[in-house]
Amino acid sequence: MKFWTAIALILVLSALGLTYEIAAGRVLAPFFGTSLVTWTAVIATVLAGFSLGNALGGFMAERERAVALRQVRAVLVGTAVLAALSPLILGLIYSLGARGTGGMLVSVIVAFFPASVLISAPSPLLARLAVEARPGREGSSLGMVLAAGSLGAILGAVLAGFVALPFAGSVATFAGCGAAALLCVPFLRDRGQGGGEEGEKPSLAPLIPIAALVLGSAALGPVCRYESGLSCIDITRTGGVISLYSDRTHQAAEPVPRADAPEDLVIPYTRWIWARMDADLGAAPSVLFVGGGGYTLPTRLLESRPEAQAIAVEIDPLITEVVRRHLPRAAAMIAETGYEAGVEGPGEGAAPGRLGIVHADGRVYLNETVRRYDAAVMDAFSSASVPAHLVTRETFARLREIVTGPVYVNLIDAPDGPLARGTHAILSELYPHVIAVRGPVGPTGLGNVMLAASPVPLDALEALPEGYEMAAISPARAFTDDRGWVGYR
C-alpha cells in the first residue's frame, strides 16, 4: 500500500469515528434527552470502544500482511453494517423498556459500543503500512499518521456538527458513516513486498448486498418528522389539539381552530404563567421570552394587550418554521406582527412589529442585549431539561440587570428536586419575593415546577390549574457557571 493511501484512509476513518460519536449523542436525545449525563455516557462508551478497537487492531497488524488486510476488510464491512443500523438498534432497545439512567447506559453500550470498536480496529495496520512504505523515514511517517488521525477527528466533528446532522439528519448520517467505511474496503489491497505488482485483488461482489443494506438503512426514515442539529421535532393532532414535541418532550400546544372553540392555552403550566403575567403586568409591558417553543405565551400576551411588546429568543430556527407551518394561532401572530430582532432591537423610533424573534442562544442574548424589559419568562428546554447555563446565578444576575419586574421560570423536575432547589436558591438570593407552584407528577416522578420572582410582593391568584398546588422548596446551594445543573441521573 502506498504511503499516502494509508494516510488518507487513517484520516477518513478518524473522521468517521468522530462523526459517529457526535451523531450518537444527537440520536440519543429523542429517547433519553440531552444533558451532561447523556453526553458523558456517549463519549465514555465510544472512547472505550476506540481503545479496545485499537488494542485488538494491534494484534491483527502483527499477522501476515495478506491475512491482516483480509481481517481489516471484514472489520470495515462490520463497521458499515453496525454504524448504519445503530439508530434501529437504539429504538429497539428503547421499545423493549429501557428507561431512566440505567436504561440509557444499557442502550448506549449496546447500540454504539460494538461499532466504536470496529471503527478504530484498522488504524494499527494502516499505521504499520504507512511506516513500512517509507524505509528510513519512520519518524516522519509516524508523525504523519498521528497528524492524519487528529485532522480526521477535526474534520469529522465539523462535518457532523455543521453539515451532516443539520442538513441530512441523524439516520442519514449513520448511513453515511456506513457507506464511508465500505468505500475504504477496495483500497486495502496487498501489493506484495516490493510494492510493485499487485498481489491479492479482493472481489468486491460480496460488498453489493452490504452496500444495499447500508444505503437502505437511510430509507427507514428519520427518528422524527423534522430534524435539525438542535431539535428533533414532531407534530401531532389529537382530541382537537395540535401539539409540538421536541425530542419527545411536549413543548407547546394549540386548540384546533373552530368557531365554537374558546381560544385558550392548552398546557396547564402556560395557563399559570399567563395568569401571573395577567395579574402582575400593566397595559403595555415589554416582555422577554427566553425559549420561543410554540410561541403560545407571546401570542396570548400580544392578543390581550394591544400595546404590549415581546422579544422571543429561540435557539433553533427550525422550531419557528414548524410553528409557522402547524400552529395556526401563533403563526398568524408571527405573520401579522413578527420581525427579526437583533440584540439591540429595531432601533429608536422604529416599529416593525410587536413580536421580535431572535434566533440565538438565550444566554448569549442576555449577555449582549442592551434592551430593558418589564418582565421575563424563562422557558427554554433542551429535551426535557433546562440547559445548565440558563439556570446559574450569573444568568439570573444578568437578567436582574435588564428586567425591572417579575421573572417567571418553568422547570421540569421532582416536586422538591435538585433543579427546583438550585434555581429557587438563585432567585431567593436576587429577589425578595419568590413563590413556587408544582404540577402533577408523571410516571417518571417529574412534573412542571414553576417559580415567580419579583422585587415587589406578588398577589395570590384566585385559582390554580387543575392538579397544581403551591410548593415548598427546600434550601440548597445556588447553581453557578462553575458548579451548575448536570441533568437527571
Automatic annotation (TrEMBL):
| TM region(s), chain numbering | 27-53, 74-96, 102-121, 142-165
Q: Which SUPFAM superfamilies match?
A: MFS general substrate transporter, S-adenosyl-L-methionine-dependent methyltransferases
Report the record's Gene Ontology biological process terms. Answer: polyamine biosynthetic process
Keyword list (alphabetical) reads: Membrane, Polyamine biosynthesis, Transmembrane, Transmembrane helix
User: Which superkingdom heads the taxonomic lineage of this protein's source?
Assistant: Bacteria
A GO molecular function annotation here is: transmembrane transporter activity
| Domain Major facilitator superfamily (MFS) profile per the UniProt entry, residue ranges | 1-193
Give the matching InterPro entries.
MFS_dom, MFS_trans_sf, SAM-dependent_MTases_sf
Q: What is this protein called?
A: Spermidine synthase
